[in-house]
Amino acid sequence: MKKYIAHIVLSASLLSFSSVALAEEVTVTVKGMVCSFCAQGIKKTFGKLESVENVEVDLDKKFVKLDLKDGATLSDETIKEAINDAGYEVEKMERK
Fold first, then answer.
1. How many other β-carbons are positioned within 10 Å of the β-carbon of residue 33?
2. Cα 40 vs. chain centroid, distance in angstroms?
3. What pLDDT digit, counting tens, does each position of 57-86 carry?
4. Could you tell me whether strands 63-68 and 25-31 are parallel, antiparallel, or unpaired per DSSP bridges?
């Protein structure tokens, strides 16, 4: 009986972990981003979006990393539009 109860408890705990939404990370390679002013503009643009938890800009590697909040979504089109509106071009986008 103890084994049966332990099995039920273990199964229930595994099910609860599988239903938790993991935060998504989006890395965007950006063409034309060359200075700290560029980086600040991109950070400000994405920082205003409710679904974005953190924005990291690497000027040397020309990428923007967006950490989304748990369960939040942000479409590729929205990301491209924000970067284009800031005057830059998306070269590549990866989601993890």
1. 23
2. 18
3. 999 999 999 999 999 999 999 999 999 998
4. antiparallel
Q: How far apart are CA 43 and CA 63, in angstroms?
A: 12
3-class secondary structure, 51: coil
Number of domains forming the structure of the chain: 1
Read off the pLDDT of each residue in 49-58 and give the average, rounded to a whole number: 96
Q: What is the CATH number of the domain that holds 88?
A: 3.30.70.100
Amino acid type, 71 = G
- Could you give the CA distance from residue 68 to residue 61 in angstroms, rounded to a whole number? 21
Q: Is residue 72 part of a domain?
A: yes
The answer to the question of residue 66 being in a domain is yes
Structural domain includes residue 6: no
The 3 state secondary structure assigned to 53-85 is EEEEEECCCCEEEEEECCCCCCCHHHHHHHHHH
Q: Which of 82, 80, 81 is nearest to 90 (CA)?
A: 80
- The answer to whether the predicted template modeling score (pTM) of the entire model surpasses 0.85 is no
